Each structure stands twice: as C-alpha cells, then as structure tokens.
Amino acid sequence: MAPFCFHHGNTFAAIIRHVVEVLSVELEQDAQLKFIVRSLAGNIVPEVATEEEVNAFCEFSDSLA
C-alpha cells in the first residue's frame, strides 16, 4: 500500500517499464527502439520526463496507431 499512499514514483516507473516490455510485440525486431520506449515511459510516469521526451513518446505512440 505504501507506494500508493506516498506516491513513490520508482514503483510506478517499474510497473510501466514492465507493461511496455510485455506489450511491445511490434518492437521485437528493434531492441534499441524497445529500450528507448521503455526508458521514456519510465520517465513519464513518475513525472521526471522533459516536455521534449513526452512529445517524442506521444509522436511514437501515434505512429503505432
């Protein structure tokens, strides 16, 4: 319960990195891109990402649709 009560960002970052790892079927051929996406998502969730990183992640997400 503590991560939810005290907003411990590292916990949420670890969760999103795992989610991206599991859902990134389309990225299987490109390990470097997979790492970048996982890293960006891990920075966005605990709110430590820059605006540029958020925009890059949004553009990437839109390109998958």
What does this structure look like?
The protein has about 60 residues and is mainly alpha-helical. It has one domain (about 1-65). The protein is built from four helices and no strands. Helix 2 packs antiparallel against helix 3. It starts with a helix and ends with a helix. The mean pLDDT is about 75.
Key features of this structure:
65 residues, mainly alpha, 0% strand
Tell me briefly what this model is:
The protein is mainly α and about 60 residues long. About 70% of the residues lie in helices and about 0% in strands.
Number of distinct beta strands: 0
Rg (C-alpha, Å): 12 Å
The fraction of residues assigned to DSSP E strands is under 5%
On the 0 to 100 scale, the average pLDDT is: 76
Question: How many separate domains?
Answer: 1
Helix content: over 70%
Query: What distance separates the N and C termini?
Result: 35 Å
Structural class: mainly alpha
**What is the element string, with H for helices and E for strands?**
HHHH
Largest sheet: none
| Approximate shape | globular
Treating each run of at least 4 consecutive H or I residues as one helix, how many helices? 4
- Which residues form runs of ≥5 with pLDDT under 50? none
Could you outline the blueprint of secondary structure elements for this entry?
Layout: H1 2-5, H2 9-23, H3 31-44, H4 51-64
Helix pairs in contact: 2-3, 3-4
